[in-house]
């Protein structure tokens, strides 16, 4: 009898451990109820109401082409930040969709920025060439500064993760995992752009 129970006990303990590790601030906010949205799929989507957003994210980093980018560069417009690395299968699967959405919103109130968490410049550039990605990525493997800046919004090792930042640089929405429905990300971006228009019209 004890031999049969031992594997079950071990599985139960592992499940509890994983449940504890999966907790993160945005998920906790959602479980507490209220006005945040949640869509379950291959990746979960969390939307954060205006009143519940934290402080603007401040960051600085160097891209695969050696250019410095900072959080102040895109203030006033929506910024989509995607955490990825070249050998990540879900990252490869979503790359074309992200580039397509980036092209849709180019000069349309939103821009994209990648954060490569594992690769050096040659691998990142090769990835961009393979998937025709035109938006830049900060190389974060050496310093981890970008991951630290966004640590309140992304769980450790959650790659890919895509964040939508509002015009003030605050996290407005998050897709945890692969973007499997481009239309959802498009809607999140459009809604966040619309917020700025609404705020301007009411001032």
Strand order of the largest sheet: 1-2-9-8-5-6-7
The tally of strands reads 9
- What general outline do the C-alpha atoms trace? globular
Q: Helix segment count?
A: 6
The SSE order reads HHEEEEEHEHEHEEH
Averaged pLDDT: 82
**Low-confidence runs (pLDDT<50, min 5 residues)?**
1-41
Report helical residue fraction: 25-40%
Task: Tell me the number of structural domains.
Answer: 1
The CATH homologous superfamily is termed: Glutaredoxin
What percent of residues are in strands? 15-25%
Summarize the main sheet: 7 strands, mixed
Secondary-structure-based class equals alpha+beta
CATH topology: Glutaredoxin
CATH architecture: 3-Layer(aba) Sandwich
Separation, N- and C-terminal Cα atoms: 71 Å
Cα gyration radius (Å): 18 Å
CATH class: Alpha Beta
Description of the structure:
The protein is α+β, with helices and mostly antiparallel strands and 203 residues long. The protein has six helices and nine strands, in the order H-H-E-E-E-E-E-H-E-H-E-H-E-E-H. The protein has one domain: Glutaredoxin (3-Layer(aba) Sandwich), CATH 3.40.30.10. The strands form two sheets. Strands 1-2-9-8-5-6-7 form a seven-stranded mixed beta sheet, with helices on both faces. Strands 3-4 form a two-stranded antiparallel sheet. A hairpin with a 5-residue loop joins strand 3 and strand 4. The N terminus is likely disordered. GO terms for molecular function: antioxidant activity; oxidoreductase activity. It is found in: Cell envelope. InterPro entries: AhpC/TSA, Thioredoxin-like_sf, Thioredoxin_domain, Thioredoxin_ResA/DsbE_sf.
């Amino acid at each position: 009898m004890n031999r049969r129970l031992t594997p079950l006990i071990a599985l139960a303990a592992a499940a509890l451990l994983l449940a504890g590790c999966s907790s993160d601030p945005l998920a906790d906010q959602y479980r507490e109820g209220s006005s945040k949205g949640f869509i379950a799929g291959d990746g979960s989507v969390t939307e954060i109401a205006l009143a519940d957003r934290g402080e603007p994210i401040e960051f600085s980093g160097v891209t695969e082409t050696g250019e410095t980018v900072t959080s102040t560069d895109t203030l006033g417009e929506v910024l989509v930040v995607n955490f990825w690395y070249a050998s990540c299968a879900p990252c490869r699967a979503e790359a074309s969709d992200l580039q397509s959405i980036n092209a849709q919103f180019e000069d349309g109130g939103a821009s994209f920025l990648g954060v490569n968490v594992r690769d050096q410049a040659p691998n990142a550039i090769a990835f961009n060439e393979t998937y025709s990605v035109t938006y830049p990525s900060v190389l974060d493997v050496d310093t981890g500064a970008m991951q630290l800046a966004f640590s309140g919004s992304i769980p450790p090792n959650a790659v890919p993760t895509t964040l939508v930042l509002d015009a003030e640089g605050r996290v407005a929405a998050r897709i945890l995992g692969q973007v499997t429905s481009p239309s959802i990300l498009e809607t999140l971006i459009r809604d966040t752009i619309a917020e700025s228009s609404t705020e301007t019209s009411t001032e």
